[in-house]
Amino acid sequence: MSIDQTQFLSRIARETPGSQISAVADYGRARSSVIPLWVGEADLPTPRFICDAATRSLAAGETFYTGTRGIPELRQALATYHARLYGGAFSSERFFVTGSGMQSIQVALTLIAGEGDEVIVPTPAWPNFAAAVGVRGARPHVVPLRFGNAGWVLDFDDLAAAINPNTRAIYFNSPCNPTGWTASRDELQHVLDLARRYGLWIVADEVYTRFVYDGTARSPSFHDVAEPGDRILYTNTFSKNWAMTGWRVGWIEADPSLGPSIENLLQYSTSGVAVFMQRGAVAALEQGEGFVEHLIARVKRNRDFVADAFAKSPRIRFSSPTGAFYMYFAIDGEPDTSRLPFRLMDEIGIGLAPGGAFGHAGDGFLRLCFARSADSVDEAVGRLTRWVAETA
Amino acid sequence: MSIDQTQFLSRIARETPGSQISAVADYGRARSSVIPLWVGEADLPTPRFICDAATRSLAAGETFYTGTRGIPELRQALATYHARLYGGAFSSERFFVTGSGMQSIQVALTLIAGEGDEVIVPTPAWPNFAAAVGVRGARPHVVPLRFGNAGWVLDFDDLAAAINPNTRAIYFNSPCNPTGWTASRDELQHVLDLARRYGLWIVADEVYTRFVYDGTARSPSFHDVAEPGDRILYTNTFSKNWAMTGWRVGWIEADPSLGPSIENLLQYSTSGVAVFMQRGAVAALEQGEGFVEHLIARVKRNRDFVADAFAKSPRIRFSSPTGAFYMYFAIDGEPDTSRLPFRLMDEIGIGLAPGGAFGHAGDGFLRLCFARSADSVDEAVGRLTRWVAETA
């Protein structure tokens, strides 16, 4: 007997959208010859020294419940890492271990937004954020960036105009997935000033801060402009820097006064993260700098290669990303990029994400992740530019 | 500069209660000599063959993103395990891997309850369920069981009387944490009939189904009475049967028509569970039966020992549990069991959970977990019964 039980679900469950990227990934995973550039993941497995730390912990029997905020060693390692990266002193009490960057966002949103609230989301943006706003019964208020000769541009008047009495927070993702847009320190100061003036929270998603291509160690950060009283929730993950996408470990950085509230929401979500996973995360922070440098060099080489190839293809419109590891581009004459990824998988065996998955501002665009081996990126880009030339 | 930022949080975040069990655990963890019986966890590390499966997967580089519903091997292993335990055929499409039993509950509640809804919760009950109802903006509607000479009794008239137009679901935890109360097949049928008549969901928490003491392989289950169209969400975990509390891996069993909705909510919570953790869970299901039997025999011996000891102590009121692995008891003359756990840690070095943490129906009770080594249970019970005799 087959009955569709979805009719009996809550309104929020019925209205939560599927991931368009997952739909592409599911289609592509069944086709082993497709070069998978749809998802934000390097093709390197997690470095051995990180896996070994987890394995040692498992072998030592660290398989029991632990404190919800994270083991002290990891909270301290996060504080030390932040002090090194941003300068100044960080208390370990600012850090909370989560079961993924996604969970960091889920908990951050539960902290600050509920039924009837709005959260401002500059787009194109990683779609899971807006969907998670919806799961809280709140509404994402989209502020589209505009694409032109100067690349993607955020109009700060648009941002200010989006603020209304229901606004609780601004989501700010820099460097940006998918556009590669990276805010300057002045732009971050501007966002912070707005948040202060209107009493808003900032959800600072600086997951890609290490992936910048100007020779610096990191992108400008809210850490550069914030004062202790500012209402900023930093949501982050071990996934990108240390090739730990599959692990599902992340962190929240927040004012220590929020500790009990964050602990409670973690308690009623997943009640903590496995100790042996956390041991791996400690190893990543303490011994992972060489790997991060290796990964960034690899990604930079690919970025330059893709940008050069695309520059020679007059039908491709793009702006070379200053951060993150995606090329976000449009092909003249191919406005429907919701169907195009499936066609490109079938016709030339390359897997891209549909640009509209990141908001309507990205309709007509495609996202290509270049955090993979040079061989696979070069091959995919070759196939793509030939296809673009031939279908002109 | 120290500013309390909690004043700027959402109503739900401000109202989410802390875990009273965590408060006891935090106090006790700092006192290494305390025998910790406050939490629902065996003192056995995860069996070697489970850890080895995870280790092999890590070493093989299974550290990438995976499908949100769980790897096919684990979904199939869950189907096979259920077929063995309950009889009949189970489709793997009914199973969804989660990042803990807690997350199973969180996702189940998001599926079915929102702002203004009510969920019926017979108490005493594991407090995290009611708290998770609150995080969804819904209200737990408590139905207290009564304690008397026949042990804990659920009055089905009370249960029916709790149903009103806002009711969306009944939470049903049998065998029950903390009381050990275990519903009969007839009682489950009665609950199911109520749910059918009023169009309610059932959240079936049968986490302790293997921990019964009448020689059977499992407690009566909604699987024994349900028909395919019934709206039942089973929330479960690997924690208890296979000593995997620290892993944070669980599952939801539900009608396959809910697959896309469950996948979406998992996607926007934690986006899946590490493949190497799932390999460990497969090993637990496929090779873990011997361990489960060993664990149950160990727990049964302890249950009998504690019951015998308590029976000789006239001030202790209790009913020997028919399921789960807790002794839930009161001490005549000690009505304030919110403070008593701290006193017992200080005075005799044993750690118990306060009964009121499980709802007001449990005020005046204490919970003792006997899923630990015979030595530590015997020692703790000896200290406790002496203390009870001496403070008379």
Largest sheet of chain A: 7 strands, mixed
What is the end-to-end distance of chain A? Answer: 51 Å
User: Which oligomeric form is depicted?
Assistant: homodimer
Range of strand content of chain A: 15-25%
Order of helices and strands of chain A: HHEHHEHEHEEEHEHEEEHHHEEHEEEH
Largest interface: A-B, 87 and 87 residues
Structural class of chain A: alpha/beta
Helix % of chain A is 25-40%
Number of strands of chain A: 15
Overall geometric form of chain A:
globular
Integer count of domains of chain A = 2
Strand order of the largest sheet of chain A: 2-10-9-8-7-3-4
CATH superfamily of the largest domain in chain A: Type I PLP-dependent aspartate aminotransferase-like (Major domain)
CATH topology of the largest domain in chain A: Aspartate Aminotransferase, domain 2
